[in-house]
Request: fold
Amino acid sequence: MAYSLTRYTTPYYYDPVIVSTYTDEYYRMKDALRANQQAVENMIDSVREERNRTVATANLKCSVLQSRVNSDASRINNLESDLTTWKNRFSNMHTRFDNLRLTLDRKDYTMDRMKEELDRCNATVTEVVSKSKRAQDEYHRLASDLKWKTVHWANDVRAATRDAAIDSMRHLTRFRPLTTYSSQYDLYDPHVKVLTHYY
Reply:
């Protein structure tokens, strides 16, 4: 903005030196104002660029953090899925373990019963073997007694028969002198020879 040097009809006195001084001061102030405005604009641009850099950096960090959060969320979901799977497996394993334990308990009970039955069978077999041995011993004893009784009875029969024969012959040949001895077979056992003598 320039001042006109045209003379105005004013009651004041016009002094060119003063006006020139004011004009120079005005231009200096104008230049200073422009410099200040330029400095302010430069500051504004610097602040804007710094803000843009800060916002871009913040957005980049937020993007990185968001990607990390997404990755962590995915990992958490995978871990939760794996945890659920392992829980199910452990639950199934506990169920199978309980079933196996019940089966083992039943088998142990069955084995105990079978062992008791086997013990009773062994006791019965031992008792039967013992009784059989005693019966066999008794049988052998009775058979031996019977054999000896049979032999004694046969000897008694032979003796009685021989005595009866001797007595009968003695009666028949009462007055006959003793001539000889003869050997003849027993009437009840043809393999046994008896000696008879005649009077």
Observations:
- The helical segments are 16-172.
- Residues 16-172 form the longest helix (157 residues).
